[in-house]
């Protein structure tokens, strides 16, 4: 996961930007991309460090060991009101 993070960190600053996430084809093609990105960018800074990246991936994974957190995250993505 860290190698993947490093490839996204084009500026090699230890953070990725919302724009970097949008460059991932699976994200850019997703009609709910903005909602997914909010999960990564919890603080609304537009910058995601490795810890937040990893935590979000772990929660969203099909093999998540955090079923309650995964359900909450998915609800945040799909529930518009």
How would you summarize the topology of this molecule?
Layout: H1 2-8, E1 15-17, H2 18-22, H3 25-28, H4 33-40, E2 47-49, H5 50-60, H6 67-78
Antiparallel strand pairs: 1-2
Give an overview in words.
There is one protein chain. The chain has 81 residues and is mainly alpha-helical. Helices cover 58% and strands 7% of the residues. It is built from six helices and two strands. The chain has helices at residues 2-8, 18-22, 25-28, 33-40, 50-60, 67-78, and strands at residues 15-17, 47-49. The chain has a two-stranded antiparallel ribbon. The chain is globular, with a radius of gyration of 12 Å. The mean pLDDT is 87.
Number of DSSP strand runs: 2
Percentage beta strand = 5-15%
Low-confidence region ranges: none
- Inertia-based shape: globular
Strand order of the largest sheet: 1-2
User: Helical element count?
Assistant: 6
Biggest sheet layout:
2 strands, antiparallel
Q: How much helicity do the residues have?
A: 55-70%
End-to-end CA span: 33 Å
- Structural Rg: 12 Å
Find the structural class using helix and strand composition: mainly alpha
Can you give the mean pLDDT? Answer: 87
The helix-strand sequence is: HEHHHEHH
């Amino acid at each position: 996961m860290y190698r993947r993070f490093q490839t996204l960190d084009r500026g090699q600053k230890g953070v990725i930007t919302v724009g970097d996430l949008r460059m991932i084809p699976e994200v850019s093609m997703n009609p709910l991309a903005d909602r997914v990105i909010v999960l990564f960018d919890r603080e609304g800074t537009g910058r995601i460090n490795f810890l937040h990246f990893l935590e979000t991936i772990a929660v969203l994974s099909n093999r998540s060991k955090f079923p309650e957190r995964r359900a909450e995250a998915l609800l945040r993505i799909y529930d518009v009101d």
